[in-house]
Amino acid sequence: MDSLLAALRAAAEPTRLRLLALAGRGAFCVTEFCEILGQSQPRLSRHLKLMTEAGLLERVREGANAWYALPSGDAGDPAATGLARDLAARLPDDDAVLAADARQAARVLAERARAASETFRRQGADWDEMRALDLPAAAVEQRLLDLLPDHGLGRLLDIGTGTGRLLEVLAPRVAAGLGIDASKAMLALARTRLAGEGLGHCSVRQGDMYRMPLADASFDLVTMHMVLHYAEDPAGAIAEAARVLRPGGRLIIVELAAHDRADVIERFAHRWSGFSPAQLAALLGANALLAEPPALVDAPLPILVCPARRSAEALPARLSALAV
């Protein structure tokens, strides 16, 4: 009761409702909020601090920036989380002030995307790996979708989310989506992508896939799309994915099949030359995951789409220890 009353009091102010409406569109930093609302940083910082303490917003630190978004539900008071999302959904789209904020937010998001793209060009990373390898991205996405029901997938975690494309693809089927990536430049592009209509329930954050700041057994579906061939420790990455997966939950790995293309490994700095179905099944089985028959997508470099389920049994002790 006390926490809910505190959250209600924290929301009952015009600027804070405007911040909630913006947070419903995606994550913003304080500087961006200042640009959109036309208010000073000290003033908005006080509002954001109060709202974060009340559980209405989630604050995620990345380097020099802190990003604010609607709470994801990983931590904090469920009542405040529900209130924040309900209030954001109930705010009228035709309100003149909120409509003006939305127009300004669109401008800020466009500028963010432009800046992120320029950073990628300067670093020589302004390319999509599927396209660069001449791989059929649409066919791979369709094969993945064919493995899943049309709705009711619960909570999704996309490990190594990159530009957030898989979150966008699966958004209509999940209750909430979270992407983890180590690259701040990638996350900037992902946040711009997720500012689109119907994607407010998806978010991204910076994190290490070997030690994610997430609770045990907190996701119904985990995806790893073209991640393992870069991983120094594929077994460790799968172990961490298993840790956050609920009993009976699903893990889907999209990965290059084993190949002998040394030119590809050298050009794109891959750590591994793909994986065979047997290798992936062994990695999955060692981590309380029951491998299902993989699908093969034909391409110049064939791609495996490998589904698995987490056993209903308790995780091995060594996996639980990873969360400590």
TrEMBL record:
<dbReference type="Pfam" id="PF08241">
    <property type="entry name" value="Methyltransf_11"/>
</dbReference>
<dbReference type="GO" id="GO:0003700">
    <property type="term" value="F:DNA-binding transcription factor activity"/>
</dbReference>
<dbReference type="InterPro" id="IPR029063">
    <property type="entry name" value="SAM-dependent_MTases_sf"/>
</dbReference>
<keyword id="KW-0808">Transferase</keyword>
<dbReference type="InterPro" id="IPR001845">
    <property type="entry name" value="HTH_ArsR_DNA-bd_dom"/>
</dbReference>
<dbReference type="InterPro" id="IPR011991">
    <property type="entry name" value="ArsR-like_HTH"/>
</dbReference>
<dbReference type="GO" id="GO:0032259">
    <property type="term" value="P:methylation"/>
</dbReference>
<dbReference type="InterPro" id="IPR050508">
    <property type="entry name" value="Methyltransf_Superfamily"/>
</dbReference>
<dbReference type="InterPro" id="IPR036390">
    <property type="entry name" value="WH_DNA-bd_sf"/>
</dbReference>
<dbReference type="InterPro" id="IPR013216">
    <property type="entry name" value="Methyltransf_11"/>
</dbReference>
<keyword id="KW-0489">Methyltransferase</keyword>
<dbReference type="InterPro" id="IPR036388">
    <property type="entry name" value="WH-like_DNA-bd_sf"/>
</dbReference>
<dbReference type="Pfam" id="PF01022">
    <property type="entry name" value="HTH_5"/>
</dbReference>
<feature type="domain" description="HTH arsR-type">
    <location>
        <begin position="1"/>
        <end position="90"/>
    </location>
</feature>
<protein>
    <submittedName>
        <fullName>Transcriptional regulator ArsR/methyltransferase</fullName>
    </submittedName>
</protein>
<dbReference type="GO" id="GO:0008757">
    <property type="term" value="F:S-adenosylmethionine-dependent methyltransferase activity"/>
</dbReference>
